[in-house]
UniProtKB/TrEMBL annotation:
Residues 162-391 form the Sigma-54 factor interaction domain. SUPFAM superfamilies: CheY-like (SSF52172), Homeodomain-like (SSF46689), P-loop containing nucleoside triphosphate hydrolases (SSF52540). GO terms for biological process: phosphorelay signal transduction system; regulation of DNA-templated transcription. The modification 4-aspartylphosphate is found at D72. It comes from the Bacteria. PROSITE patterns: RESPONSE_REGULATORY, SIGMA54_INTERACT_1, SIGMA54_INTERACT_2, SIGMA54_INTERACT_3, SIGMA54_INTERACT_4. This is Transcriptional regulatory protein ZraR. CDD domains: AAA. Keywords: ATP-binding, DNA-binding, Nucleotide-binding, Phosphoprotein, Transcription, Transcription regulation. Pfam families: AAA_lid_14, HTH_8, Response_reg, Sigma54_activat. One of its GO terms (molecular function) is ATP binding. InterPro entries: AAA+_ATPase, AAA_lid_NorR, CheY-like_superfamily, Homeodomain-like_sf, HTH_Fis, P-loop_NTPase, Sig_transdc_resp-reg_receiver, Sigma_54_int. Residues 22-137 form the Response regulatory domain.
Length: 483
């Protein structure tokens, strides 16, 4: 039997703080049982329980989950083979390793056929057991993770903090769970505000490999070429004017975790070559530094741009695109998942509810308006609208007039002359005029694709007046340029 001292330098296989793994040793001889327990405890730094036969083991397995069961085959009462059979039949989510004497090798081989992970001889080196246990625990953890993800996937509208009832998004969840135990590079494509960063975080959290490491986001569009290089790769002291200190770049910061390259379509060509090299070689040098730095990072990139167009126009390297696009996730815009509006509204209401006050509700007309709005800014725009409504609603009910004008205006426009005798006539007239003016202006902007001069000609107003009204109604001119 192995001696405890032999394994003192082995590392724990479970670096994830979220999954607490436990081991069960099943062995009838007290000395062997205790020395195995001490060995495993020391080497794996995990909780280890023991049982003297199969029946006691089953009782323990019914009480708490064990990631790994290490069992002898020959024992009184219930032997190892019967225990294995029961674990298989009852679908107990434990991985089994068999320890056996020379005489029982055929039984151990039979146990392998029944689905046990592996077997080893009692005369084997202790290190062999430790290595086997480490491998088995790692694989178990991945299997448990995937099972937990699948449960989330089919059990509701939330998947690692991403809310959705939409079948299109459920396909995305399925894809994330499929790639959870890989480190494949992922490319997320979606309009602004569709939740690209949120999904990138879900990918990071879904994987036991990355989750215990950092999630490092970089907005590539926020830097010019030189700054982006030093942002990503860091620099050595004195490598350029102003580099008065050594700087650790984002790639290095993300070691062991995920680097999220947002707005990848905006990376200048010369930087694209450098990125490609890092993705291929998994190492790089700091700016002004000679020593190559090895990194173990999952890269998730995102863009709202049409990558095919960028490649066609010669603005993005195809080879880099292929590297990034190993797994591609297309996020649908909010207007293509109307079933999500209510779920998200309720989520944001809870998020923005004022402490100490009741969580607001939404009146049916306001909810209808929220569901019908086109949401060019997608979930972020919806989030802002709900935040504003939570602040302005007075009696704990969000009504149409608490919504931004462009959304409220759509409802009022449906029946602009509805008379409300509880409010003074001038107030209602002013609202109707404003709603009509806003609709007129939006239509003119749509026709002219946001061109203020042309819009002035159509409306008969001055350019200045158009600009003032655009500000007054909080209209985003850029929304019309894209149409
Ligand atoms: N499915 C979702 N469930 C809950 N919140 C979400 C969801 N999707 C997005 N959000 C929230 O909406 C906001 C915008 O999301 P995010 O920043 O991930 O979008 P984005 O596509 O990366 O935006 P941009 O293109 O502007 O970078 C964030 O506050 C995020 O938390």
């Amino acid at each position: 039997m192995p001696s405890p001292a032999a394994a003192s330098d082995a590392a724990s296989p479970d670096e994830s703080p979220q999954v607490q793994q436990r081991v069960l040793v099943v062995e009838d001889l007290p000395d062997n049982r205790e020395s195995l327990k001490t060995l495993l405890k020391l080497a794996l730094k995990l909780e280890v329980d023991t049982a003297e036969d199969g029946a006691k083991a089953l009782a323990l397995l019914a009480e708490r989950p064990y990631s790994l069961v290490i069992t002898d085959l020959q024992m009184p009462r219930m032997d190892g083979m019967k225990l294995i059979q029961k674990i298989q039949d009852d679908g107990i989510p434990s991985t089994v390793i068999v320890t056996t004497g020379h005489g029982s090798v055929p039984d151990a081989v039979e146990a392998m056929r029944m689905g046990v992970y592996d077997f080893l001889l009692k005369t084997d080196e202790p290190q062999r057991l430790i290595r086997m246990a480490q491998r088995a625990l790692k694989e178990r953890r991945l299997q448990d993770e995937v099972a937990a993800l699948r449960e989330q996937l089919h059990g509701g509208h939330t998947f690692l903090n991403v809310l959705s009832k939409s079948p299109k998004m459920h396909d995305v969840f399925e894809l994330i769970s499929q790639i959870a135990d890989t480190t494949a590079t992922v490319m997320i494509i979606g309009e602004t505000g569709t939740g690209k960063e949120q999904v990138a975080r879900a990918i990071h959290d879904s994987s036991a490999e990355t989750r215990s490491g950092p999630f490092v986001p970089v907005n590539c569009a926020a830097f010019n070429e030189n700054l982006l290089e030093s942002e990503l790769f860091g620099h050595e002291k004195g490598s350029f004017t102003g580099a008065d200190k050594k700087r650790v770049g984002r790639f290095e910061q993300a070691h062991g975790g995920t680097l999220f390259l947002d707005e990848i379509g905006d990376v200048p060509m010369s930087m694209q070559v450098k990125l490609l090299r890092v993705l291929q070689e998994r190492r790089f040098e700091r700016v002004g530094g000679g020593e190559p730095i090895e990194i173990d990072v999952r890269v998730v990139a995102a863009t709202h741009r049409n990558m095919d167009d960028l490649i066609r126009e010669g603005k993005f390297r195809e080879d880099l695109y292929f590297r990034l696009n190993v797994v591609r996730i297309d996020l649908p815009p909010l207007r293509d998942r109307p079933e999500d509006v209510e779920v998200l509204v309720n989520h944001f209401i809870r998020k923005f509810a004022r402490p100490g006050r009741a969580v607001p509700t939404v009146d049916p007309e306001a909810l209808e308006a929220l569901k019908k709005a086109p949401w060019p800014g997608n979930i972020r725009q919806l989030e802002n609208a709900v935040e504003r409504a939570c602040v302005t609603c007075k009696d704990g009910v969000i009504r149409v007039h608490n919504l931004p004008r462009d959304i409220a205006g759509r409802v009022e426009a449906k029946n602009p002359f509805q008379v409300d005798l509880s409010r003074p006539l001038p107030d209602q007239l002013a609202e109707i005029t404003a709603a009509f003016e806003e609709r007129y202006l939006r239509k003119a902007l749509r026709k002219t694709r946001g061109h203020v001069g042309k819009c002035a000609t159509i409306t008969g107003l001055s350019r200045r007046s158009i600009t003032d009204k655009i500000a007054q109604y909080k209209i985003e001119k850029s929304d019309f340029k894209k149409d």
